[in-house]
Design brief:
The protein is of the alpha/beta class. The protein is built from eleven helices and twelve strands. 42% of the residues lie in helices and 17% in strands.
């Protein structure tokens, strides 16, 4: 069951309210609390994501959510879905902005992700109620909401006419920061990125480039602690396979930190997950 918040309500997101064409109503499901709207970063990009784009998105999102960044994206396959999934997997916060009615799961193939976001204390929003079907014009309209909710936008991969470039342009219109991940210059997924760089977007080489903008510290000490925590996780799993809650109890790590580090261990093939339990690989 969805709920609705009006632009005149106190709980309406303050950053979104600042844009001239803010939606009058936001229909939503899930965690509509003030803390989910602080430190929001839009992560957008190509629907035809490459293996490099997938790796970059997972790596950046996993580390960013562990430090309190909320990931906002447009719930499409490709970079959007990868960003939402990585945030959920790392027990972080994510907001999906739909191009359709709040009761319609689009694309339907991502139905499992839709439920995963809600089950992990995330948020799904739309300016359309019920099962309003997406149209060509609703996608760019959705992109203005993505940009409006966030202090910054990160574009991972983008072809020359990618919809993610619309989000980046809205961000510039709203005086929000735009970041982009560099790629191979001969890749079609880099054409839009190259144009963004020419237009003044900031190139990102590591997570700390983004955290500096949010004034969140990411020191070598933190990296060292993460390495120590990885060893702690593996040592416990060498004793016996464990589920998330048991690992949390045994290691003493916070949910967000444990989720982030488990994701990185899974990506590096140091552990595997089967039927809710983690095993050393």
């Amino acid at each position: 069951m969805y709920q609705v918040v009006n632009v005149d309500d106190e709980k309406y997101p303050s950053l979104l309210k600042q844009i001239k064409d803010a939606p009058k109503n936001i229909y939503y499901k899930g965690n509509f609390k003030e803390d989910i709207f602080s430190n929001c970063l839009a992560v957008v990009g190509s629907r035809k994501i490459s293996s490099y784009g997938k790796w970059v998105t997972q790596k950046f999102v996993t580390e960013l959510v562990s430090l309190g960044i909320t990931i906002v994206s447009g719930f499409m396959y490709g970079v959007d879905a990868t960003a939402h999934f990585a945030a959920v997997k790392a027990k972080g916060k994510t907001i999906a902005v739909m191009p359709c009615g709040i009761d319609l799961i689009h694309p339907s193939i991502l139905g499992h992700l839709y439920q995963d976001i809600l089950n992990s204390n995330g948020l799904i929003i739309s300016e359309y109620e019920g099962k309003f079907k997406p149209c060509l014009w609703t996608y760019p309209r959705r992109n203005r909401i993505i940009a409006g909710l966030c202090q910054a936008v990160l574009v991972v991969e983008a072809q020359e006419r990618s919809g993610s470039l619309i989000t980046a342009r809205y961000a510039k219109k709203y005086n929000r920061k735009t970041f982009c991940i560099p790629g191979q210059i001969n890749s079609v997924n880099s054409k839009g990125i190259i144009n963004l760089i020419k237009e003044g977007s900031t190139i990102v080489g590591e997570v700390s480039d983004i955290l500096d903008f949010y004034q969140i510290k990411y020191s070598s000490i933190a990296s060292s602690k993460m390495f120590d925590s990885d060893n702690l996780i593996i040592k416990n799993l060498m004793l016996e396979p464990m589920d998330f809650d048991t690992l949390c109890e045994k290691t003493g790590l916070r949910n967000e930190q444990l989720g982030s580090e488990l994701t990185m261990l899974l990506l590096s093939d140091k552990i595997i997950e089967q039927e809710g339990k983690y095993y050393t690989n």
